[in-house]
């Protein structure tokens, strides 16, 4: 199995290079080219319930629909094609359809256009596959499922995504696709945007971003007296991805500065070598996301320690009478419910704070955090005016290594000010969300250059949009 997985990964890397080479020219790409790129991934080990011609028809259909307004709005929804041999069934039950079409609906431009406004957005999708050379819609299902390994504590948050093809209609002429085979050995995401086909990355799963999360985790641990569990690494990734995902949904853009541990604001200013590099108009002391994460983790750990014994006397070891067992059980249930409610409240507070932070990002200027994710202020202005040398980050490494060159001049004020700040402040990290939804990472590198990674996108299978839903 391991050798087979390595072979598939090797083939996927080759296909990625082929797609980058074939579609990186200045020629404009459309639905035909996008379908060809998707088919290259599927051909590694065919898993879609679509023929090659059916895939072309589906992508062309989605592209045309993206250009047509319905009730004065452009459509925004997802289409899901299951992998071969897979149906969305949980716990050996029937497929969990939100809406089931009986009979199925044969899709063409006119039909899909008329029903597009009624298709719910992520995490739901219109479920389709090919039947007798026609694209048939069978209903609406939830293709991404938020669950918890321990429902009493909600300490493990997972997001399952069904295998197959998820085609997202984002805006006129803009399509995203995510591909997952049944064994999840092939995972790939592509975008057709402004006539270009590019690979896109989920920020939550990228090695270079995970290294930043690890640094934040270390800062949170060092600030807490009590020992924290290994679960906080997942909390950090989930909550930060959630904030960035909401910022994308707001379609305004935002800039999120995370200061190095050695830096702090003084009356709203940050100085480097006695030179002002940042001015924050409005200072804040809350929320402290790192502290909230630690509190949630400690509450969960406390509940695990306080599970009552209900069958034996803890002092003598003797078996308790049945009445005492019932009493202890009822008391234990009551205590458990109370603890579970407290944990839920902490969890809800954390996500409420995250939503507030994400909304603040729509105000002009940047948000500023310390390394423990405490919000220090908003409506910040970068005062640096010198443009640094910028390079493209290698996203598949945890250390900050250069992969190629990066032309910052093709970007606007928000991106250029982020690069200038990182060039002046060692250890600085900035996440920039553009108005079109792309997320980019800016870091100060050891050689004084500014490393830039991305574009990232909140993709199916990441937690932010699930919680938001």
Q: Mind explaining what this structure looks like?
A:
The chain has 469 residues and is an alpha+beta fold. It folds into two domains: 2-200, no CATH class; 207-295 and 348-468, DNA integrity scanning protein, DisA, N-terminal domain (YojJ-like (1, 3-Layer(aba) Sandwich), CATH 3.40.1700.10. 35% of the residues lie in helices and 27% in strands. Strands 12-13-15-14-11-18-19-20-16-17 form a ten-stranded mixed sheet. Strands 2-4-3-1-7-8-9-10 form an eight-stranded mixed sheet, covered by helices on one side. Strands 5-6 form a two-stranded antiparallel sheet. Helix 2 crosses helix 3 (52-66) and helix 6 crosses helix 8 (322-360). The two termini are 36 Å apart.
Q: Could you give the topology of this structure?
A:
Layout: H1 2-22, H2 31-42, H3 52-66, E1 77-82, E2 97-106, H4 109-115, E3 124-131, E4 134-142, E5 144-148, E6 157-161, E7 164-171, E8 174-180, E9 187-193, E10 196-199, H5 207-223, H6 232-250, E11 254-258, E12 269-272, E13 275-283, H7 289-305, H8 322-360, E14 366-369, E15 375-382, E16 390-393, E17 402-405, H9 413-424, E18 429-433, E19 439-444, E20 450-456, H10 464-468
């Amino acid at each position: 199995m391991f050798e087979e997985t390595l072979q598939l990964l090797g083939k996927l890397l080759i296909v990625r290079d082929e797609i980058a080479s074939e579609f990186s020219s200045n020629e404009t790409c459309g639905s035909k080219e996008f379908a060809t790129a998707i088919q290259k991934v599927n051909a590694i080990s065919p898993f879609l319930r679509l023929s090659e011609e059916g895939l072309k028809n589906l992508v062309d259909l989605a592209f045309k629909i993206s250009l047509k307004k319905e009730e004065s709005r452009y459509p925004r929804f997802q289409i899901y094609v299951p992998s071969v041999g897979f149906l969305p069934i949980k716990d050996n039950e029937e497929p969990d359809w939100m809406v089931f079409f009986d009979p199925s609906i044969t899709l063409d431009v006119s039909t899909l256009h008329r029903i597009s406004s009624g298709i719910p957005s992520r995490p739901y999708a219109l479920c389709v596959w090919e039947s007798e050379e026609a694209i048939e819609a069978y209903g609406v299902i939830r293709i991404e499922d938020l669950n918890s390994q321990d429902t009493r504590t909600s300490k493990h948050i997972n997001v399952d995504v069904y295998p197959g093809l998820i085609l997202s209609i984002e805006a006129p002429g803009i399509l995203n696709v995510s591909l997952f085979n049944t064994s999840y050995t092939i995972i790939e995401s592509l975008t057709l945007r402004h006539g270009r086909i590019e690979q896109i990355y989920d920020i939550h799963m990228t090695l270079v971003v995970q290294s930043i999360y690890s640094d934040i985790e270390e800062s949170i641990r060092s600030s807490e007296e009590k020992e924290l569990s290994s679960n906080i690494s997942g909390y950090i990734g989930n909550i930060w991805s959630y904030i960035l995902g909401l910022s994308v949904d707001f379609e305004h853009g935002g800039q999120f500065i995370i200061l190095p541990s050695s830096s702090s604001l003084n009356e709203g200013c940050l100085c480097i070598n006695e030179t002002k590099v940042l001015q924050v108009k409005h200072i804040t002391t809350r929320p402290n996301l790192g502290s909230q994460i630690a509190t949630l983790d400690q509450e969960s750990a406390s509940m695990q320690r306080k599970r009552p014994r209900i069958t034996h006397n803890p002092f003598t070891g003797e078996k308790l009478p049945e009445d005492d067992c019932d009493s202890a059980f009822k008391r234990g249930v009551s205590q458990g419910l109370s603890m579970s409610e407290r944990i839920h409240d902490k969890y809800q507070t954390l996500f409420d704070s995250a939503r507030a932070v994400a909304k603040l990002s729509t105000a002009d200027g940047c948000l500023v955090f310390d390394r423990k994710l405490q919000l220090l202020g908003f409506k910040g202005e970068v005062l640096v005016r010198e443009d640094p040398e910028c390079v493209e980050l290698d996203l598949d490494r945890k250390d900050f290594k250069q992969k190629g060159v990066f032309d910052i001049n093709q970007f606007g004020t928000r991106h250029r000010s982020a690069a200038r700040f990182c060039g002046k402040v060692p250890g600085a990290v900035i996440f920039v969300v553009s108005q079109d939804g792309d997320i980019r990472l800016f870091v100060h590198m050891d050689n004084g250059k500014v490393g830039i990674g991305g574009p990232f996108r909140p993709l199916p299978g990441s937690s932010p949009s699930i919680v938001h839903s």
